[in-house]
Amino acid sequence: MRAARKLRVHWPISAETFNRATAGDLGALSGDQGVASLLQAVEQFQDLGDFGNYKHVFESTVGFEGFTCAQGATPTLGKVGERTISPTFVFTTYFDAQLSDDAVEGFMDQLAEIHPWELPVIELTGPVTIAAHRRAGELEGEAA
């Protein structure tokens, strides 16, 4: 068991990328410029998704975000006063709960900087417990 924090980022994708991904074409995600920039940024931070022998571990889903832009907004998608639905890539990863606040602020700032939305949806949890058990015979220092 280990204490970790969860980082979740909601990232807009095109309808074409959404349709291809939901049809099983996962190459559509790596071909999407926005998702590619997200994954590239995340790979710069070695602490994100670090599970020992597995690096940059993440989970993802595709779905929809809905919003209405209020007066004063400068939307990337949609119009002020109009309900907008956006296809979305939801990226989730974990990092050690003991990681310094400076490091966490560093990657949060970078993700906000490259995110296409005026107000990006980036969630950060407090500590959660991850059960990261190895199978029998795979414990460190144990003979196979």
Instruction: Report the total helices.
Output: 4
Which strand-content bin applies to the residues?
Answer: 25-35%
Total separate domains: 1
Please give the share of residues in helix. 25-40%
Q: Categorize the overall geometry.
A: globular
Structure report:
This protein has one domain: 2-Layer Sandwich (Alpha-Beta Plaits), CATH 3.30.70. The protein is 26% helix and 29% strand. The protein is built from four helices and five strands. Strands 1, 2, 3, 4 and 5 form a five-stranded antiparallel sheet that branches. The model has no long low-confidence stretch (mean pLDDT 89).
Task: Give a brief description.
The protein has 144 residues and is of the alpha+beta class.
Characteristic key phrases:
144 residues, alpha+beta, Alpha-Beta Plaits, 5 strands, 26% helix
Q: What is the fold's blueprint, element by element?
A:
Layout: E1 2-12, H1 15-22, H2 27-30, H3 33-43, E2 59-68, E3 83-96, H4 101-114, E4 121-124, E5 128-130
Antiparallel strand pairs: 1-3, 1-4, 1-5, 2-3
